[in-house]
Design brief:
Shape: globular
Strand content: 15-25%
Number of helices: 9
Helix content: 25-40%
Strand order of the largest sheet: 1-2-5-6-9-12-13-14
Number of strands: 16
Order of helices and strands: EHEEEHEHEEEHEHEEEHEHEEEHH
Radius of gyration: 18 Å
Length: 307
């Protein structure tokens, strides 16, 4: 079986606000150190949210998204790169395209997240805290533009898939046959370099929700687009570790960290993200699956060797 690629994601401010071991994104030094510990534990993809704030309400453009602080992103990115050879994956698919482009130009990530469904998320795991909603549609012209710019800047897309509608969108972008708003037919081929890297999301609250069950996972996997690798993200603590184990057993890759689930076992918070990564490593090795090194992970993901 292919070696396991572990992605680590540490930012649980919106998803688990009561987490006593949360390192907030304003503490860029602390965030970088959390990633470095997780890398040392076996993670090879660093999915970072950098430093950011959120739109307080839906904006005039009809979106309620995240706003990055470039200097904070720079500090975290430089620190983790100085500590090893991670695949740096810029998260926050919930950023506006122009802000993503600024980060790409400034910091040259290996990968960047894009939601091939629509953002319709509603973070409220604790009813005593107000919800954190994220809203934005991502029509085909936007995905085309994003894909074209990512290819131009040498950034591999981490394609976020909340349901199988994302697979349909992948097919449209792969097909390269587009119509403009003026009714002009245009062709732009090879916008998604292969193999694709997809992250499949389960249990994320909102109207893009897919249930965190083995059957739902198998359905998503059975219908994967061709020439695609996948990683699994689950935001549902009661089912989290069983979903991780199931994914590892069927040959998928996993996303681990406090953003998705900060609990090392039922009701017990992990003190660091490294503890969570270590548990995923133990699960994999118990069933005879080895963990990919940094160079092996690059090959599996479809990235050039680190220089």
């Amino acid at each position: 079986m292919e070696k396991l690629v572990i992605t680590v994601t540490t930012d649980s401010a919106g998803s688990y606000p009561r987490n006593p071991y949360l390192t907030h994104c304003d503490d860029t030094k602390g965030v970088a150190e959390e990633y470095i510990r997780a890398m040392n534990a076996g993670a090879t993809i660093v999915h970072t949210h950098g430093q950011y704030k959120s739109d307080p309400v839906i904006q005039p453009d009809g979106k309620q998204l995240s706003i990055p602080n470039v200097d904070g992103w720079r500090y975290i990115t430089e620190r983790v790169r100085a500590a090893g050879e991670p695949i740096v994956q810029f998260g926050l698919a919930s950023m506006r395209l122009e802000q993503k482009l600024e980060l790409w130009k400034e910091l040259s990530p290996d990968m960047s997240s894009i939601n091939f469904n629509s953002h319709d998320e509603y973070f409220q795991p604790d009813p005593d805290y107000p919800p954190t909603p994220i809203y934005s549609i991502h029509p085909i012209p936007e995905l085309r533009m994003y894909s074209s710019l990512a290819k131009k800047h040498g950034v591999k897309q981490e394609i976020e898939c909340f349901n199988t509608g994302a697979y349909w969108a992948i097919g449209k972008i792969r097909g390269g046959d587009f119509w403009t708003e003026d009714g002009v037919r245009e062709f732009e081929k090879d916008l998604l370099p292969e193999p694709l890297w997809l992250t499949l999301f389960f249990g994320w609250a909102g109207q893009g929700w897919t249930p965190p069950t083995p059957k739902a996972l198998q359905y998503m996997v059975d219908n994967l687009p061709p020439r695609a690798n996948f990683s699994m993200s689950c935001m549902d603590p009661p089912n989290y570790w069983s979903m991780v184990a199931h994914t590892i057993a069927i040959g998928g890759h996993v996303r681990i960290g406090m953003e998705d689930c900060p609990f090392i076992e039922a009701g017990v918070y992990a003190k660091t993200n490294a503890e969570l990564v270590e548990k995923a490593v133990r699960i994999a090795r118990e069933i005879g699956r080895e963990i990919a090194s940094a160079s092996e992970a690059r090959e599996i993901v479809g990235l050039p060797a680190s220089t």
